[in-house]
Amino acid sequence: MAVPRKMSLALAILCLLSCNTLLPSSASSDSFLQCLSSMMPNELVFQQSSSNFVSVLESSVQNPRFVTNTTVRPLCIITASDVSHVQAAVRCGRWNGVRLRVRSGGHDYEGLSYRSVQPEVFAVLDLARLRGVHVRPGEDSAWVDAGTTLGELYYAVGTTNPGFLFPGGACATVGVSGFISGGGIGLMMRKYGVGGDNVIDAKIVTANGDLLHRAAMGEDLFWAIRGGGGESFGVVVAWRLKLSKVSPTVTVANIVKTMDEGVTDVLAKWETIILKPVLPDLTIRVVLQYKQAFFQTFFLGGCSDLVNTMNSVFPELGMTAANCNEMSWLRAMAFVYFNVPVEGLLNRTNNLRYYSKSKSDYVRRPIGKVGWESLYQQWLSQNGNGQMILEPHGAAVGGANTKTTSPYPHRRGVLYNIQYGSNWCCNANDTVAAAALGWLNGIYGFMEPFVTSNPREAFANYRDLDLGQNVIGRDGLTSYSRAKVWAQRYFMGNYRRLAAVKAMVDPSDYFRNEQSIPPLPKY
Question: Which GO-annotated molecular functions does the record name (predicted)?
Fold first, then answer.
């Protein structure tokens, strides 16, 4: 049973008042800032009194709901430009009782990388300056700095090392580090696995401020950071990623079907072909909005092969050669991302115009035509701003050898992931916001009979505080038993192992937020 927010907040405040090591005094805050000043350039630290504080705070924000005056704001923002600055921030924070929240791309759906729900003194460690892709022509791996975006990664690989790819997501402004640390699902995962499955090595700054690579951190920690919520265990500063060969031509095809065109029949058929093992080169992602569905097809091959395959397994979609867009993998990723030029993948744009809220689900048995018809009639056709995104799994994601590759647990038997989203203008009144959230909660409730249960699975990269928030125990540590309410939905059977790793590498629970992995208690 989820702990009500008011009760959770009251318990947290009680603990903060009784454990003075968790709530720094003004003297401790001053000491923290003085420590930073002695260990890194002052121009990299933006205090609340700085004229640039707000602009730096908002620089990579993707949901302006969390930069209002009611948000618990950081003591300062540390814009590290070197790994030594990350180490200094961690050590100064530990010595002075100031916690860090780490931000890379800024797509954290609940904003926990730069704000706190509970009253505490904290600093933001912003990694946006730590960005770079170190790749050589012909090599099947690349070192990628933690502040790099997926778009920057795609551009570097596609221009420096054509013929190779990294199987990332569709949104170019997502940070590589956040993508991997939550597992990472994307358009090519049916062929190559999720993002966390494609990490060869990493560099992490631990709670002691030490810099470790894979051999030094050990396989348990290396496993945990590749999908178990990397911010719980330390600060990953770089990833060595596996690159996979790709043919010179890939094909993208976009087809829209409406309710009048029998979209529910097409969706019902789509569900039946996802797990076909002979189709790992084919991904058909679906976006449902209002009275239509947008079928986004991504094929690792040419148009003629795609059309022949589709006519064989999915004729209901009605694909022809006229729907095809043949191009390189790099151009395809730019095409999927709002059809920008490949240079557009380098733009680190943020969103300060629309508020949003998301939720997620997993489906293991087809919903069927009748279910889709009810969904459209009762919910989708009633809100033009709400949407559902369906990401097909199967093939390499749920293969025989992936059970322990990384902590991402939603594998064998999963048909697809669902992301529900509701958006409204930041200038809208409370009635509009309440209606948007009411629609989201309503469609989520409607879907309960069609999705997984015990637990109702959820995706860690689509963080949702409605699932529950951490509570601090009398020992000053995050409660392991209370965290189960949300953690078993994200991580399922991997939760206990993740907590055991946390107890090993960060037993004092320094790296924590409202949905961080707690240390496994010593019974």
Answer: FAD binding; oxidoreductase activity
Burial class from Cβ neighbours inside 10 Å (0-12, 13-18, 19+) for residue 346 reads middle
Report CA dihedral (181, 88, 470, 445) to the nearest 10 degrees: -40
Domain with CATH 3.30.43.10 in the chain: 21-130
* β-strand partners of 141: 242
Q: Which range has the worst mean pLDDT, 98-107, 337-346, 394-403, 447-456? A: 394-403
Cβ atoms of 359 and 462 within 8 Å: the answer is: yes
Say if strands 122-126 and 76-79 run parallel, antiparallel, or are unpaired.
parallel
Cis-peptide, bond into residue 341, ω within 30° of zero: no
In the numeric block, the tokens 């953690």 are attached to: 487
pLDDT of residue 19: 32
Residues in CB range of 142: below 8 A, 6 or more apart: 133, 134, 135, 153, 156, 157, 161, 166, 240, 241, 243
* Segments of the chain assigned to CATH 3.30.465.10: 133-245
DSSP conformation letters of 37-73: HHHS-GGGEEETTSTTHHHHHHTT-S-GGGGSTTSB-
The torsion defined by the Cα of 385, 343, 57 and 441, in degrees rounded to 10, comes to: 20
Compute CA distances 193 → 185, 308, 319, 481, whole Å: 8, 25, 26, 31
For residues 344 and 331, the answer to whether their CB atoms sit within 8 Å is: no
361 neighbors 456 (Cβ within 8 angstroms)? yes
Residue of 400, 336, 393, 396 lying closest to 361 (CA atoms): 393
Altogether, the residues listed in the chain come to a count of 523
| CATH class entry, domain 133-245 | alpha beta
**Would you say domain 250-327+353-450 falls under CATH 3.50.50.60?**
no
CA gap 510, 232 in Å, rounded? 9
Q: Do the Cβ atoms of 39 and 92 come closer than 8 Å? A: yes
For the domain spanning 21-130, the CATH number is: 3.30.43.10
Q: pLDDT tens-digit profile of 259-310?
A: 999 999 999 999 999 877 768 899 999 999 999 999 999 999 999 999 999 9
User: How distant, in Å, are the alpha carbons of 176, 479, 494 from that of 63?
Assistant: 18, 29, 30
